[in-house]
């Protein structure tokens, strides 16, 4: 996972670059950029919407779908993992006892979890590979934020 941290971190960096650097240069003044602080940020959002109608930009829509979809997919994945833990604990012992740090075997059964999910939605909506599943969970919101940053860069100038 370590090499992908810089790719994941590029999403907030590209969004910050778009609103703090690219947009003000395109507008001709850094006073048009997003200020720091709550009230200044809300004022910037209202002015940006009034001048550029960013809410109707397709790249902004992809960003919203990325962020909200990523949270939905993560919640669904957490629910599936919790419902398919390999070792169940009793009331007497802690729930954390089902996992020991550094253990070799898997903590949950991905075949059972996503087999159920495939029957619930449709067969190809589930993942059989843990790596591809976790890549998808990380890549979906990052790509959405990239699209929003591109929408600000393309629409703001």
Automatic annotation (TrEMBL):
The chain crosses the membrane at residues 7-26, 61-86, 133-152. Gene3D superfamilies: Photosystem II protein D1-like (1.20.85.10). Keywords: Chlorophyll, Chromophore, Magnesium, Membrane, Metal-binding, Oxidoreductase, Photosynthesis, Transmembrane, Transmembrane helix. InterPro entries: D1/D2 (IPR055266), Photo_II_D1/D2_sf (IPR036854), Photo_RC_L/M (IPR000484), Photo_RC_L/M_CS (IPR055265). GO terms for cellular component: photosystem II; plasma membrane-derived thylakoid membrane. Its main location: membrane. GO terms for molecular function: chlorophyll binding; metal ion binding; oxidoreductase activity. GO terms for biological process: photosynthetic electron transport in photosystem II. It is a multi-pass membrane protein. It is found in: Cellular thylakoid membrane. Belongs to the reaction center PufL/M/PsbA/D family. This is Photosystem II D1 protein.
């Amino acid at each position: 996972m370590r090499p992908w941290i810089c790719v994941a971190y590029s999403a907030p960096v590209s969004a910050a670059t778009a609103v703090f650097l690219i947009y003000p240069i395109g507008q001709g003044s850094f006073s048009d950029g997003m200020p720091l602080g709550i009230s200044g940020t809300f004022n910037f959002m209202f002015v940006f919407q009034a001048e550029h109608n960013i809410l109707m930009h397709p790249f902004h829509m992809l960003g919203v779908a990325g962020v909200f979809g990523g949270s939905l997919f993560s919640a669904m994945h957490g629910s599936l993992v919790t419902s398919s833990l390999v070792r169940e604990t009793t009331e007497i012992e802690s729930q954390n006892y089902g996992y020991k740090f550094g253990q070799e075997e898997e903590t949950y059964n991905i075949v059972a979890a996503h087999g159920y999910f495939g029957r619930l939605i449709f067969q190809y909506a589930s993942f059989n590979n843990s790596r591809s599943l976790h890549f998808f969970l990380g890549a979906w919101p990052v790509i959405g934020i990239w699209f929003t940053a591109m929408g600000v860069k393309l629409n703001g100038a």
